[in-house]
Design brief:
single chain; 244 residues; alpha/beta; Metallo-beta-lactamase, Chain A; seven-stranded mixed β-sheet; six-stranded mixed β-sheet; 13 strands; 27% strand; binds zinc ion
């Protein structure tokens, strides 16, 4: 099973990094975790055909996590016409927001509908679900005031990945990390302490409690980049390939 980091940056593209997106390939399936605005750019930069994606799981409806979907639809319409179905899963409200996004960006195209079967599934936090052979445990994380943000524990190809999405530090990350092969954890800040993003000192202090075999920090913000010399944990970069 292979995880390719298409984008390891934050919403501000700090350090010139692309926004959040991770492609998991296992058992002939392509599962995209998040689809920031630069996802198609990442796929093309890494020579990965966009049709590899069967399923997109969105952690939350912020632009740096779902804003790239409209460009994928464009690619699947004109550059690499798609016929196979695409399933987009995410927190409650995903279908409405994705359709509104596409309509705002390409109104006439959106009005025509997609040439491929497009379906949506909206997760309920805490309720496990298998989609396309991939077992998801979605859990709510602290990041937005009203809208639901999700983290995912994902099992596919005999491996288990924990993905934090965007979130403040919370003890659920300890619980869900137990027995995982990989934990992709956001790390937006260094000196700033907030309740809605993880800082490097927080995750470093908790590393010994995490039950993951490998921890990779991502969604790297400016503060972390500026103090990279003090960072002792593995950090993702655009194009990082993780074989499990
Ligand atoms: Zn973000
Ligand atoms: Zn966010």
């Amino acid at each position: 099973m292979r995880v390719t980091v298409l984008g390891a940056g934050d919403a501000f593209s700090s350090g010139g990094r692309r926004q959040s997106s991770y492609l998991i390939e296992a058992q002939g399936q392509g599962v995209l975790l998040d689809c920031g605005t630069t996802t198609l750019l990442g796929l093309k930069a890494l020579n990965i055909p966009a049709e590899r994606i069967d399923l997109v799981a969105i952690s939350h409806l912020h632009g740096d996590h779902f804003g790239g979907l409209s460009f994928l639809f464009l690619e699947y319409t004109y550059e690499n016409p798609r016929t196979k179905p695409l399933l987009i899963a995410g927190p409650p409200g995903t279908e409405e927001r994705v359709r509104a996004l596409h309509s705002a960006m390409y109104r006439e195209l959106a009005a025509r509908g997609t040439s491929f079967p497009l379906s949506f599934y909206e997760f309920t936090p805490g309720q496990p679900l298998t989609l396309e052979g991939c077992e998801f445990l979605p859990f709510q994380v602290p990041h937005q005031e009203k809208d639901i943000s999700l983290g995912y524990r994902v099992r596919i190809g005999g491996k288990t990945i924990l993905y934090s999405g965007d979130c403040g530090w919370n003890e659920d990350l300890i619980t869900h990390s137990q027995g995982t092969d990989l934990f992709i954890c956001e790390c937006c800040y260094f000196s700033s302490q907030t309740t809605f993003h993880v800082s490097y000192p927080q995750i470093a202090a908790q590393r010994h409690r995490l039950g993951c075999k490998r921890l990779v920090l991502s969604h790297i913000g400016r503060e972390v980049l500026e103090r990279m010399g003090e960072v002792a944990l593995e950090c993702a970069h655009d194009g990082l390939v993780i074989d499990l």
